[in-house]
Design goal:
By secondary structure, this protein is of the alpha/beta class. It has one domain: Metallo-dependent phosphatases (Purple Acid Phosphatase, chain A, domain 2). Helices cover 25% and strands 24% of the residues. It has ten helices and 19 strands. The strands form four sheets. Strands 2, 3, 6, 7, 16, 17, 18 and 19 form an eight-stranded mixed β-sheet that branches. Strands 1-9-10-12-13-15-14 form a seven-stranded mixed β-sheet. The chain has a two-stranded parallel sheet with strand order 4-5. The longest helix has 18 residues.
């Protein structure tokens, strides 16, 4: 059994409750269901003083259900092989890089990804607690696909962050409470391409959370850090096929660190990159492909990043009031995307090789490899 799973509500909804005590066609909710927000139960408040001494948080990279992995979206337990790495953590997260729709027209771009709503059940059954959709494939099927995605988001069994009916919703955090640690999870994209150009959420228009410039994400992180024990920012960033972070990612990480983010991770480059400590933050620049259709050798190298958090220190004061990291340890589990499109943990000589690659990429990240040196 997994450790007690934490369930979530959008922070905006949770705060409200506290205060009270480019083409496509068609319209309407494709499922005909009500618009009640999907959640796994109400979250306890961050004022709870007791709980475990530490919690673990696991991150995987980019997930889609295209081509050879398409069948997994209709198999409720299609990702069960990932449970030992994700469901065993107190909180786990991946980037869901696809529109959730079976309608709409493909946008004029080189690659278009989509999946049926059943994919959300498959993801939930893998033990994943929250997904980001602030990425360059979330609106691959135009306005109709986006409309469907937002409708399915409301009923999703796993909370979705980084996309919304407007800017406020797209930048709103998801709230989770593993081990009575109040966690805010936010997400945004800074990959310059068609989605960011045409489908960035604004004051009165739907789309993904846009991190260029960083001011809106910084403001959202600052707000979350005032009343949460831990703040996680999941970014879609970096340059395709780069082993080391680009300057834009480095600058964004610094901005988010100063805003109060405790953990800053992300991906997009199709490569796992370096990770480590910087000030009070733990940063992971690249998580690589995770559930993926490509079989090119370097595109297959991936892993799971598992962080240990001092839960007692996190509960002691909100993130904004700390100047010391609460991330005490990190573990990288080296994996390779196998013939079925699923990541497989490596052993022996291949594990050693991948760990050496990880060490090299840690070095070019410029990040410290222990919390004391950060």
């Amino acid at each position: 059994m997994r450790s007690p799973r934490v369930t979530a509500l959008l922070a905006a909804t949770a705060l409200a409750l506290t205060a009270c005590g480019s083409s496509g066609s068609g319209d309407g909710d494709p499922s005909g269901s009500s618009s009640a927000s999907g959640s796994k139960g109400a979250s306890p408040t961050s004022s709870t003083p007791t709980g475990p001494k530490e919690i673990t948080i696991a991150f995987g990279g980019d997930v889609h259900f295209q081509d050879r992995v398409a069948h997994l979206a209709t198999e409720p337990n299609g990702l069960k092989s990932l449970r030992p790495y994700l469901a065993t953590a107190d909180l786990s997260m991946v980037n869901l890089e696809t529109a959730i729709t079976e309608r709409g027209e493909p946008m004029p771009k080189k690659f278009n990804f989509r999946a049926p709503t059943s994919a959300l059940t498959t993801i939930d059954n893998a033990g994943i607690d929250v997904v980001s959709m602030a990425n360059n494939h979330a609106v691959d099927y135009g306005p109709q696909g986006l409309k469907d995605t937002l409708a399915f988001k409301k009923k999703s069994p796993v909370p979705i962050v980084g996309i919304g009916k407007d800017e406020k919703e797209a930048f709103a955090p998801v709230e989770l409470n593993p081990g009575n640690v109040s966690v805010a999870v936010l997400s945004s994209s800074q990959v310059r391409e068609e989605t960011l150009a045409n489908w960035s959420a604004d004051e009165d228009s739907p789309g993904i959370a846009n991190n260029l410039p960083t001011d809106r994400m910084v403001k959202a992180v600052e707000k979350a850090a005032k009343d949460h024990d831990l703040v996680i920012a999941y970014l879609h960033w970096g340059m395709d096929y780069w082993n080391c972070p680009d300057q834009r990612s480095v600058n964004a990480a610094k901005d988010l660190q100063e805003a109060g983010a405790d953990i800053i991770v992300g991906g997009h480059s199709h490569r796992f990159q370096g990770s480590g400590w910087q000030g009070k933050s733990y940063i992971g620049y690249g998580l690589g492909n995770f559930v993926w259709y490509s079989s090119r050798p370097y595109d297959k190298e991936t892993g799971v990043l598992t962080l240990t958090v001092d839960a007692q220190a996190a509960r002691a004061k909100p993130s904004a009031k700390r100047d010391k990291t609460v991330v005490t340890d990190s573990k990288w589990t080296p994996m390779v995307v196998g013939p079925e499109g699923l990541p497989i943990e490596q052993t022996g000589a291949e594990k050693d090789r991948l760990m050496q690659v990880k060490d090299e990429r840690n070095e070019c990240s410029g990040l410290a490899q222990s919390p004391d040196a950060g």
